[in-house]
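Pasting as-is:
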Amino acid sequence: MKLSARNQIKGKVVSVDHGPISGKVTIDIGGGNVLVSHITDDAVNELGLKVGDEVVAIIKSSSILVGK
């Protein structure tokens, strides 16, 4: 996956909470630090996100995107 965003942080999914419209994905990025991203529930399902997945948090402006 190639992206123009330079702020890419690897981590591991520690929780996925589904909602009717958006899902909350919590990512452990090491050193006791976590990132939380709210993405559409459709995106959570399309990526097949689950606890233990290795992902990349992509930070662009004020948004954190998730890639797998």
